[in-house]
Amino acid sequence: MNDITLKEELLNTDLLFGQLWEISVDGMRLIDEEGIILLVNESFCKIFEMDKEHLLGKPFSIVYADDEQQDALKSFKRDIRHNKLKTLFERENRLWNERKAWLEFSNSFLVLPDGNKITLSIIKDISERKLSELELRESESKFKLLFNNANDAVFVSQITEGKSYGDFIEVNEVACSRLGYSKDEFLKLSPSAIISPKNINDFNNHLEALLSNGHVIYDTVYRARDKKLIPVEVNSHLFIFNNKPTILSIARDITERKQSEERLQRSSKLLRELAIHIQTIREEERTMIAQEIHDELGQVLTALKIHITLLSNKLNKDQEPLKEKINSVLDLIDSSVESVQKISTKLRPGILDELGLNAAIEWQSEEFEKLTNIFVSLVLPKDELNLDADKTTALFRIFQEALTNVARHSDANKVSVTLMKHHTNIYLEIRDNGKGITNDQIKDFKSLGIHGMKERAIVFGGDVIIEGISGKGTLVKVQIPAYEQLHEK
To answer: Which CATH architecture has domain 22-131?
Structure first.
């Protein structure tokens, strides 16, 4: 190779190096063994916000804050003397303009033909990346703080191929404490391992709902390591993490709530039984009083009528005025006997005990029509409903109260009554065509009749719903279980 060709190749190499030097997005710097800047590119000037003329021939430390320049230069010269130049490192520096910047340095020695060494440094401003890393670390730190200091147990599980439930990938300290597993032990378990066997089918259904809807809240029972059962309310969310479906579950211990619910159920059952007992006693007293009035007072009045009649027969023909007074007394006795019968019937209709609910409703409807001139249409089952005496009485009393409300408040001229059995429930509906009850009237605590109807149904696990439409009438819907509810405790 001749000298001309060698010079051309060197020239081309210099041109190529010059182009690479200037187009590089990273800062590039050449310094001698004393730390003096020999050459920088435009990217270096942009990073440090200084012009080339202010850099060339100056110590490289000029780009740093005044109080950092001396230490940086001494450290470089010491490394050069001991041939221990750091080749790759990151460092946060305070620059000449007080701006803080994270910089990544890549250093290498270049040996010149005369034996002198120069240092090539490639410098990247990594401030944004470092800021993101710091924010991420801070976010992770906050997450871990919240995760481990939550009052509820928190689980993260990931569904993997070939496993129905997946595995736990993270749990907090509360979960470990309450269920008695260490974190390492937890991370070897599947979520199904902490579910009580009796609740596993429900758990499967909730998991399907979660995978379908992305969120589900449900109650279940966890089984701790020592076999202790813990009722919990679980709030689960589905999200994607590392391209896999992942479940975040927050489980709240509801032991106290469940205990309170059980106490409330026991109290409700006790109150219901007490209410039934009181109503039974009341009806028994009504029956007894009705019988005593009918038998005792009725017999006295009948005997009195007989004696007065016998006395009247002994009067002479010239005692006509006295006979008229006796006849007036006899009429009064007859009226009293009718009143006794009516009072006895109101206290406890004998027809209810003798012929059943259907006949009692028919009789009461006829009496209602006579008293109010409001027409009553009936739809009753062909066969008598097979109900115990307490439920029969409750339905009849609700029916009586509904008719009383129609007569007092509705301005109706027609009432439709339907009684039926459907599946395991008895339904009674009383509909009128009056002005319609308002919501305020339904909710009024002074509406004792309405509250009484509801209470009679509630003690048997039933309900009374009242609906009113202005100008179109009122509907009373009664529903009572035909049989004792097995789920009651």
So the answer is: 2-Layer Sandwich (3.30)
